[in-house]
Design goal:
The complex is a heterodimer of chains A (about 120) and B (about 120). By secondary structure, chain A is mainly β. Chain A has no helices and 11 strands. Chain B contains no helices and 12 strands. The chains are: A mainly beta (about 120), B mainly beta (about 120).
């Protein structure tokens, strides 16, 4: 089975530009999570969805960040306008509630390394 | 509030030896799950092992085992017969029912270096 797919893997942009990160969760999973990882703050949960509906966006840093999940197989995280402090690795993860092994494990994508100059 | 503490920023071990990575957690919820993830230098987050709060036995997955001491609120990862490919960052994480059961809280990680 294909794992979580993220694109692009690397993104370099200039301050003020719009950045869109994309994620395709594992087929059949009903939860999708967006995380950000930096040296200073570690792994932070930004937002998560259940059945395409945002459940908790309390981790989204500010209004410049937005996330959507138009269908069960696609989600985007958008930063507009981007700033140098947004430079980080952004991970998408998905899980299945009530998974057969009862763990509801989150499986991560390979991440997108974002650099804002 | 849920919290995960990993007190070892770095650990060194020789190939073929066993190593224990420490993890303590704090939660008042009776139902929770504990996870370990591996992050090699390539950056991906790889799920290793899971322990549920009601599980009677310690979890094992191949060379990975979890030393779960509920009264002490610790969930240490034991890697047996270390290999060079085990060199990576290791994160302990917890999911608890009190703050949205699906949310994971991560520790700061332990960097493991396996030497020949």
């Amino acid at each position: 089975d294909a794992g979580v797919i993220q694109s692009p893997r690397h993104e370099v942009t200039e301050m003020g530009q719009e950045v869109t990160l994309r994620c395709k969760p594992i087929s059949g999973h009903d939860y999708l999570f967006w995380y950000r990882q930096t040296m200073m703050r570690g792994l932070e949960l930004l937002i998560y969805f259940n059945n395409n509906v945002p459940i908790d966006d309390s981790g989204m840093p500010e209004d410049r960040f937005s996330a959507k999940m138009p269908n069960a197989s696609f989600s985007t995280l958008k930063i507009q306008p981007s700033e140098p402090r947004d430079s980080a690795v952004y991970f998408c993860a998905s899980s299945l509630f009530g998974s057969r092994d009862y763990t509801d494990t989150q499986y991560f994508g390979p991440g997108t390394r974002l650099t804002v100059l | 509030a849920q919290k995960i503490t990993q007190t070892q920023p770095g650990m060194f071990v020789q190939e073929k030896e066993a190593v224990t990575l420490d993890c303590t957690y704090d939660t008042s919820d009776p139902s929770y799950g504990l996870f370990w993830y591996k992050q090699p230098s390539s950056g991906e987050m790889i799920f290793l092992i899971y322990q549920g709060s009601y599980d009677q036995q310690n979890a094992t997955e191949g060379r990975y085992s979890l030393n779960f001491q509920k009264a002490r609120k610790s969930a240490n990862l034991v890697i047996s017969a270390s290999q060079l490919g085990d060199s990576a960052m290791y994160f302990c994480a917890m999911r608890a029912s009190g703050t949205g059961f699906q949310k994971l809280v991560f520790g700061t990680g332990t960097r493991l270096l396996v030497s020949p």
